[in-house]
Automatic annotation (TrEMBL):
This is Receptor ligand binding region domain-containing protein. Gene3D superfamilies: 3.40.50.2300. InterPro entries: GPCR3_GABA-B, Peripla_BP_I. Signal peptide: none annotated. Keywords: G-protein coupled receptor, Glycoprotein, Receptor, Transducer. PANTHER family: GABA-B RECEPTOR, GAMMA-AMINOBUTYRIC ACID TYPE B RECEPTOR SUBUNIT 1. GO terms for molecular function: G protein-coupled GABA receptor activity. It comes from the Eukaryota. It comes from Dreissena polymorpha. One of its GO terms (cellular component) is G protein-coupled receptor heterodimeric complex. Transmembrane segments: none annotated.
């Protein structure tokens, strides 16, 4: 049995990664990123989930290019 903090202190960091289309011809990540950040905040506030961990996220811009995507996938059809 492990000791779990009861005061809400989370001593270990757990980092997840994300790639979001923040720029380019379809910048849909601008709507997705805030939702993911809000979810991380919600999980971090809870004392009954991942009690020893504080979630963090590192993310990058995929710089989506719809034309490139279509060209790549058209050759695979």
């Amino acid at each position: 049995m492990t000791n779990r903090p009861t005061s809400g202190f989370k001593g270990r960091n757990l980092t997840i990664g994300g790639i979001f289309p923040m720029s380019g011809s379809w910048a849909g990540g601008q709507g997705c990123l805030p939702a993911v950040q809000m979810a991380l905040e919600d999980v971090n506030k809870r004392t009954d989930l991942l009690t020893d961990y504080m979630l963090h996220m590192d993310y990058n811009d995929s710089q989506v290019c719809a034309r490139w995507f279509l060209l790549c996938h058209a050759t695979n059809l």
